[in-house]
Amino acid sequence: MAQLNINGRSHQVDVEPDTPLLWAIREQVGLTGTKYGCGVAQCGACTVHMDGAAVRSCVTPVSAAEGKKITTIEGLASGNVLHKVQKAWVDHEVPQCGYCQTGMIMAVAALLKDKPQPTDADIDATITNICRCGTFQQVREAIHAAAKA
Ligand code: FES
Ligand code: FES
User: Fold this and answer.
1) Model pTM score
2) What is the dihedral of CA 61, 67, 71, 72, to 10 degrees?
3) What is the per-residue pLDDT across 61-75, written as a single tens digit (0 to 9) for each?
């Protein structure tokens, strides 16, 4: 058993300490916005925040998440008010199939917290998430729009 704080609520999860956080979030807590893509920290579809930093939950053991504040895409908005990254994503019609997008948004939200005005080089270095639909140009435009919001 482990105790996880996810989106401001405490959850008991019945998993082994080395179970990837992704599976605790999806299968034990039932928050399915966080996606499984590669399972080996390459694609970023599983990105969540741990104490405000972007982490790839497919390679983060539950034991490393205990005592930390986990935020998933379901917890990013403040009630009915979208996070500025979500708003920019809507305005710029970024998603295509959508599968990679929750991970993208979580990665970008963490980037803008660290670097409120990221350069293209900052974006290239930090947002390494993979999008099979090729939304990279829209992602870049939406990041710059969110930075100005
Ligand atoms: S599923 Fe975690 S990085 Fe791809
Ligand atoms: S929008 Fe389809 S994989 Fe990114």
Assistant:
1) 0.97
2) 30
3) 999 999 999 999 999
The pLDDT tens digits for 89-123 are 999 999 999 999 999 999 999 999 999 999 999 99
Mutate to test the pocket of ligand 2, among 38, 42, 101, 106 (most ligand atoms within 8 A of CB): 101
Structural tokens at position 60 = 């983060």
Beta strands in 14-132 (DSSP E): 47-50, 53-56, 69-71
Residue 32 C-alpha to ligand 2 middle, in angstroms? Answer: 16
Ligand 1 center to 90 CA (angstroms)? 24
Residues 6+ apart with CB under 8 A from 144: none
Question: What residues contact 81, with CB distance under 8 A and at least 6 apart?
Answer: none
